[in-house]
Design brief:
The radius of gyration is 23 Å and the shape is globular. The chain has one domain. With 314 residues, the chain is α+β, with helices and mostly antiparallel strands. The chain contains five helices and eleven strands.
Length: 314
């Protein structure tokens, strides 16, 4: 006579399942924290590489690259956005070990020209944050009527335009504007120009989630809009320059209004990240995490290159 084989009862199975569910519930937050920490570390590492590239470019050219380029060498400098539009990210490519992509670009033609169409769609990991929900690999550039102007490689980093919005001014020379930052249309910033100190000036920071940015350039007539206007009701579409630039405030049109990283106002022209704050690259090549709770005056001071402000604690 064979002995009876006793299996698990239904209650015992339910208890085991419940225990497993509890263990998974305990582990998931820890796993999520590890993933977030890894993503933040990767974003910081990418910013450090970009910082080295900025200084490599400065060593080779005696200045940092322009925020973006309007007008061709040897021709009168236009007072508005114009061809070719190439931005700071493009000029850094040879210093980011992206010579193959750089050599494919016809810099003598507009960045949106069909001759450049294939190369400018190239996704580059150095310009991406692993935690960003808008993961690309490309972004579509449109005008205010929704017409497609170009398709560019995505970037989760933007350059600092300063406190004001220089794209609001039709001037051939923007360098004299109060609160100017290191990068703007046809900027030629040198280390000596940053009298506030490179370690006290933000060069580049994270921008994800709200709107798409690019490493390629600026297309005149383009409009940068929130990806989900219902989720971000406080923001609206902005000018083409915000494809590659952002500002901190305050601007004369918004007196007293400052936009720290990831601040709830959620403008497409501010730095924004998947966490409460954002990683920023300073002019000396160091990378810092700036919380949303940063002192507003401190954040505005970090945005200008020669404001003479005292930078307090972050």
């Amino acid at each position: 006579m064979q002995p009876l084989r006793r299996g698990f009862t239904l209650i015992e199975l339910l208890v085991v399942i419940a225990i497993i569910a509890i263990l998974i519930g305990l582990l998931l937050p820890a796993v999520q924290k590890v993933r977030e920490a890894a993503a933040r570390a990767q974003s910081q590492n990418n910013l450090k590489q970009i910082g080295l590239a900025f200084h490599g470019y400065h060593d080779a050219n005696g200045m940092f690259p322009p925020g973006y380029q309007a007008g061709y060498a040897g021709q009168p400098v236009p007072a508005v956005d114009a061809a070719p539009g190439w931005a700071w990210g493009t000029f850094l490519l040879p210093h980011l070990e992206q010579d193959n992509v750089f050599r494919q670009l016809r810099l003598d033609r507009p960045c949106w020209d069909t001759v450049n169409a294939a190369a400018v769609r190239t996704p580059l990991k150095v310009f991406l944050c692993p935690a960003a929900p808008n993961a690309g690999p490309t972004m579509t550039v449109k005008d205010s009527g929704g017409a497609v102007l170009a398709e560019f490689g995505l970037s989760h980093f933007v350059a600092n335009n300063g406190q004001d919005e220089t794209w609001a001014y039709d001037l051939p020379d923007l360098s004299g504007l109060p609160g100017i930052g290191p990068f703007y249309r046809n900027s030629k910033t040198r280390t000596a120009s940053v009298t506030d100190g490179l370690s006290n000036t933000v060069f580049v920071g994270e921008h994800t989630t709200i709107s798409d940015k690019t490493w390629v350039g600026v297309v005149p007539g383009a409009e940068v809009c929130p990806l989900d206007p219902f989720r971000y009701p406080f923001t609206s579409c902005d000018a083409a320059a915000t494809l590659v630039l952002c500002h901190s405030g305050p601007a004369p049109a918004e007196p007293g209004v400052v936009h720290p990283p990831s601040f709830p106002t959620c403008h497409v022209c501010q730095m924004y990240a998947p966490w409460q704050g954002g990683n920023v690259l300073l002019g000396d090549g160091s990378v810092r995490f700036v919380p949303t709770s940063v002192n507003l005056n401190t954040w505005a001071a970090l945005a200008s290159i020669r404001g003479g402000e005292v930078v307090g604690d972050y």
